[in-house]
Amino acid sequence: MNRDRYRRLAVVGVGLIGGSVAAAARRRGLAERVVGVVRSAERIGRVEACDLVDEVTADLAAGCRDADLVVIATPVGTIAALALEAAEHASADAVLTDGGSTKAGIVAHVTRRCPRFVGAHPLAGDHRTGPEAARHDLFDGAVTVLTPTDDNPDDAVGAARRFWEALGSRVVTTTPERHDELLALTSHVPHVAAAAVAATTPADAMPLAATGWADTTRVAGGSPDLWREILLANPGPIAAGLRRLATEIEAYAAALDRRDADALQRLLTEGKRRRDALGS
Amino acid sequence: MNRDRYRRLAVVGVGLIGGSVAAAARRRGLAERVVGVVRSAERIGRVEACDLVDEVTADLAAGCRDADLVVIATPVGTIAALALEAAEHASADAVLTDGGSTKAGIVAHVTRRCPRFVGAHPLAGDHRTGPEAARHDLFDGAVTVLTPTDDNPDDAVGAARRFWEALGSRVVTTTPERHDELLALTSHVPHVAAAAVAATTPADAMPLAATGWADTTRVAGGSPDLWREILLANPGPIAAGLRRLATEIEAYAAALDRRDADALQRLLTEGKRRRDALGS
Question: Which of A151, A148, A150 is nearest to A159 (CA)?
């Protein structure tokens, strides 16, 4: 499927996503050499211990030098600046892409200055983070959203698409703005809902929390640092989605005040209908 | 651990919970004969096909006649009436218990009239329902909440406790009212949150729903009929919990409006702290 083979893949940020990109690329032979770039020298040993890359460095310029493929997989607040810096050191025809959970701000900032950067978001994750959680099959069967713009040359878009497909994911394409509107509803609002359910459960109730609570709140175990940045990178669509959610929850509370069985049945049925559309 | 062996266990309502009680009791040899009572003759064949009980009947009087242990495992709105009716036919020294997700209303209605009824709620479940989903290990490692009152004789409470323990669960005891307050927060409010997240996700966003959405909304796949009754049986604590949840969600939306990173960090950290107290 993927006829590309890169000389040097630089993965900037070797956590769950970056580490899994590196591991999948190595496993599938997509690059002759896979270099991990970490934020500080203290992290080098930790990444080396996970055996995800051929080489680890805390020097962005050295790591990206002559790379013909660069993946930025750092927290969303740092992706734009790192992509522009990486592009200065990478090969002139390098393709750049990223793994950020928001796209409009990043793409608006980077793509015009660096048309070979093609925004991407693999919908794969875990509530665990860090290189220890990385795995070569993280993207198998997942969807990756690609958000090219008119600034991107076709060959860069094609290469980015083939790369994310070669990692095991199915690529769908949309605009950066539409991506952020949709992900607000499928990922960012659910994260807040999970965290809010967890936070409003008092400690003395916890012995009676069972699998339903565990499922509903699972994503709230994710990193507050990462999620603060994601929320701040997409504030408008998320705030609007949260207010729709709060209104829906208030509709249940009002139906309970009235002991309105028909209204509760309608509300629950609509939730089940949408949930059943996905499967387990 | 369990020195009791019953002559005849009648399980009224052979769905996920009742079927699992029957299967676990048979597997562990807790009764000489396990009889399933279903609501209508049409359901007899379906339950027989699942091989959960020794005998199935749609005749409550016949099924409960001379039973020395009765478990009512029907939807919460029907438990009280069925428990009182079952008690008329069961052996005079029979112990009765149930599997209802709410306790205050049921216990208040039944226990004074029938002091050998000891309210119980096994915190085990599944978004699937019906006898096909039943399994003998459903209660292994689960908590069962027992809600005895001063009306219950000690021997009935002890027998109910030993029975739920013998099914594989760990029994904790509290009042019916306290049970309902706590379960509102650990189960009923999370269910509504899951259903509300699902219902407010538009159909055209669903192709971008991934594991986070799937986890957060999983319980919304449960039966609207069952959950309508659970919500209506515990309206006060649930409505109060939902309004606390809506306030928490609004705090996120307000923090997003202000681009308030510190507030978001605080909110997310509190959610993670509570979530991490449980484990995966």
Answer: A148
